[in-house]
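User: I'm new to structure prediction. If I give you an amino acid sequence, what do you actually give back? Let's try with this one:
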Amino acid sequence: MRIALYLPGCFRSVIMHLSLAERWGGPPVGADQAEAWIGAASVGASLTIGSIRGIDVRVHPTFALLFLWVIYQWGIATSAGAAGIIFGTLVLLLVFACVLAHELAHAWVAHRYGLAVHDITLLPIGGVARVEYTALRPREEAWIAAAGPAMNLAIAVALTPLVLLVAAIRHIDQPLAVVLYADEVSVAGFVLYLWITNILLALFNLLPAFPMDGGRILRAGFSALCDRVVATKVAVVVGQLLAIVLVISGIWLGDYLLPLVALFILISAQLEARWVQVEATMRALPVGQFALWEGGGIRPEAPLAHALRGGPKDIAVTQDGVVVGMLWRHELLPLLSSGYQELLVKDLMDRSFNPVEATDSVYDVYLWLSSSTRPAVPVVERGVYRGIFTSERLAHVHQHVNRKTIRLQYGVVLSFLARLRAVAR
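Assistant: Good question. You get back a string of structure tokens that encode the predicted 3D arrangement of the chain. For your 425 residues, that looks like this:
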């Protein structure tokens, strides 16, 4: 029997909810510029509608498209007219209040572990919580991931007395009958809809596949036993198997939505695996290997004109091989159109710089650049200047590592498709 016979049409869109859009705890994969990594997920221009405990809550302009769905689902499909549209709008707003509660639960737990939460953006398919990226311990990742579904289950539990009351008044004695009543434009339908929605949000989130919270919990469990890269690969394989099950189920049940969800799971799992592999590779690369020598820097007593030869750029200021300051390109640019003949390097150099050791990993330097406003860092070896590492250089390294990882993942995708064809036979 088709899923549509069990679930009202309104619920078939619920599974395309917040977790399909959600991405916390990692930078966007494949960013071409280092600056694009700062912030976990970019969702475009949004309207800030408020702030909760210092966390901005935003709504994406495309959220307005949901009101077209409300008009059809509650006004036309139910033949309830204007009353149905008003009712559906109220249901929609409260459903997304539950989505917001889910995201806030993630944010609050992340905050308890010392992570900064930038904002939460509501989209037509759910929510995006932008959380500061850092390598999490398995226990921390599991608790942050579990917080969202736990919030939805708590809301469902709180609504259960009202659901039991509705069931008693309507003489509902079959579990599936509760689902059918949820499409009613009534107080009873309103309560049942919110109750079922929160249960679906929690259960679907707990599926052991990225980007759902269950996939992160699974990865955290394996990370306690083995390397995080290996744990991610295991979680990705589990997600691929789940995707195969969803595709087969969708074809068998005649439900077009399940194959789409399977496709999203596959793509998201591969993106997550790619970023973890890129991170692991960057952790193994010493930044000194990619530092630019730049002629050994420039002396503080040198005329500023010497620093502008060849055009403005970030330059280390050195004295007897030791870094004593930095000249920043964005501060040198205005001097091209003004007089600077009398200025010396020491007059403009920045003394509050942060040198890194040549043995530090590229990934650690990336984290520092992401958390600072500086476009580059001087690289030293036992205190002696060895070169400069810029955000452009970082982007170049990332692109090279990312392309290599994509080639490896291409083979994984082909393997998945081979398994899918084998099952289909």
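You can read the tokens as a compact description of the fold. Here is one thing that stands out. The first helix runs from residue 3 to 6.
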